[in-house]
Design brief:
133 residues, mainly alpha
Length: 133
């Protein structure tokens, strides 16, 4: 065999090896492209689901904020009612004290009352209570 034939065979062998490598790389890239397209398709399909999940989360968060605000309003109303109740209790206690004094005074003034005998001396100095009719 001549050197030219050996060189031609070696060149052809190198070309065949390079062509085979190029074809394998091209096939690998095409496979990767197909795989990437599949991943993108699955991601696009899930995009809608994820959007719905986000919308539900925002809806629940909005309801939570509304409930919290409503609770704060109710708490403020409860505090205001508690304050009004305290004022009414205080007024009622004052009225009860005054009423008890009136009952006591009536018992002191009444000659038939048992407690009037012990307090007649003290009440003689005060003028009798007369209804204003």
């Amino acid at each position: 065999m001549s050197t030219t034939i050996v060189i031609v065979i070696v060149v052809i062998a190198v070309v065949v090896v390079l062509l085979a490598a190029w074809l394998l790389m091209r096939q690998r890239r095409e496979h990767l492209r197909v795989e990437a397209a599949g991943i993108r398709n699955r991601a696009a399909e899930r995009e809608f689901e994820v959007g719905e999940q986000q919308a539900r989360a925002e809806e629940v968060a909005a309801r939570s904020r509304a409930a919290k605000a409503e609770g704060e309003v109710k708490a403020a109303q409860a505090a205001q009612l508690a304050q009004q109740a305290q004022v009414h209790r205080s007024e009622a206690a004052d009225s009860r004290t005054e009423l008890d004094k009136e009952w006591e005074r009536a018992n002191k003034v009444d000659p038939d009352s048992k407690s009037s005998e012990t307090h007649q001396v003290a009440d003689q100095e005060q003028p009798p209570h007369r209804p204003s009719h």
